[in-house]
Amino acid sequence: MKQTVLLTGCAGFIGSNFVKTVACRADIKALYDFVIVDALTYAGNLENIKPELDAHSHLKFHQIDIRDSQKIHDLFKKYAFSGVINFAAESHVDRSIESPNIFVETNVLGTLNLLKESLALFEAKGNFKYLQISTDEVYGTLQMEDAPFTETTPLAPNSPYSASKASADLICRSFFETFKLPVVITRCSNNYGPLQVEEKFIPLMIKRALANEPLPIYGTGMNIRDWIYVDDHNEGVWKVFTNGTAGEVYNLGGASERQNLDVAKMILKALGKPESLLKFVTDRKGHDFRYAINFSKTQKELGWSPKVRFEEEGLNRTIEHYKKLWAK
Ligand code: NAD
Ligand code: TDX
């Protein structure tokens, strides 16, 4: 019999790409139905997944806020899910510095609502998997000489965003330790690719360059992020969901550490724009210097590794996508 899995936050960047490249695959479609919920905040756009919702009857959509415990309860009553993949979150660090409350409400309390309903189903019928989509930012920041984060690196989040994600991870852990709810957590590095909200670094740089407007570089631009193409992340998510061991954390990374300034210069070069468009601006408060991920556990246990090379493949593909949207 087909299983029904709840996907949250799939009108956003990573989730909508998951719907396209994983949830609609013929082999997966044959075995799973997916119920997608999203609150459609400023970051969610139903158009992102409209072609898939129109074309595939194994996908259903409900506009629901994961903070709404009654609606989440009713949803779990309606569908006897066998699993949950929780992509839904407030995801932008700068917004969390300005307005942290909603980060705690959605990322922590919303996650708790999903866990409580998952537990009720698990206790009633067994056979359940809950996957929490987390981030490398929960580990804090690295200096140049530090070794990349492993799954046992202590949590040391620095922004209200990363603190809310770390809190959610700990609540997830507690549901495994206390109730034995089969929970797995993925912690991934910076994603890039199509359909990302333009407040994030790569689409913002592309949009500004296409419009011949200044590209805002925080601080010195020396900060380092490890970039992963969104499809590589989503392949890892599915591997962890289907084959990961309950109670475990799995790191996912792109093996592509780059300085922000270098990435901005690559984008300018690819678009034939001058470096005079670079504009150094006031640094982000508490700006983490470097993220780097050791994903050898996921590689060894689940046979996952990132495939898309940053300069040669992923960045150009991403630039072409946004050029079609934004080039005049
Ligand atoms: P996004 O901001 O593009 O999308 C988030 C989605 O969640 C949107 O569709 C939004 O409408 C929905 N949402 C927000 N609040 C909600 C609520 N209360 N109820 C229901 N839906 C709600 O984010 P993203 O970049 O796609 O990130 C998805 C997940 O991956 C997040 O959990 C994020 O923390 C994590 N993550 C992101 C990255 C990255 O580089 N973008 C890296 C690692 C982990
Ligand atoms: O205008 C900008 N100028 C700039 O220099 C913006 C928006 C960002 N930056 C810098 C800050 C970071 O060093 O670029 C880097 C990337 O910034 P963001 O795109 O805001 O991503 P980051 O803060 O690294 O967090 C992202 O990766 C981990 C996602 O937003 C998170 O959701 C994810 O968990």
UniProtKB/TrEMBL annotation:
Catalytic activity: dTDP-alpha-D-glucose = dTDP-4-dehydro-6-deoxy-alpha-D-glucose + H2O
EC code: 4.2.1.46
Pfam families, sorted: GDP_Man_Dehyd
The keyword Cell inner membrane belongs to this UniProt entry's keyword annotation: no
Top-level taxon: Bacteria
Top-level enzyme category: lyase
Keywords: Lyase, NAD
The protein's required cofactors: NAD(+)
InterPro entries: dTDP_Gluc_deHydtase, NAD(P)-bd_dom, NAD(P)-bd_dom_sf
NAD(P)-binding domain mapped to chain residues: 6-312
GO biological-process terms attached to the record: nucleotide-sugar metabolic process
Keyword Lyase annotated: yes
GO function terms (MF aspect): dTDP-glucose 4,6-dehydratase activity
Family: Belongs to the NAD(P)-dependent epimerase/dehydratase family. dTDP-glucose dehydratase subfamily.
Protein name listed in UniProt: dTDP-glucose 4,6-dehydratase
Organism for this UniProt entry: Bdellovibrio bacteriovorus
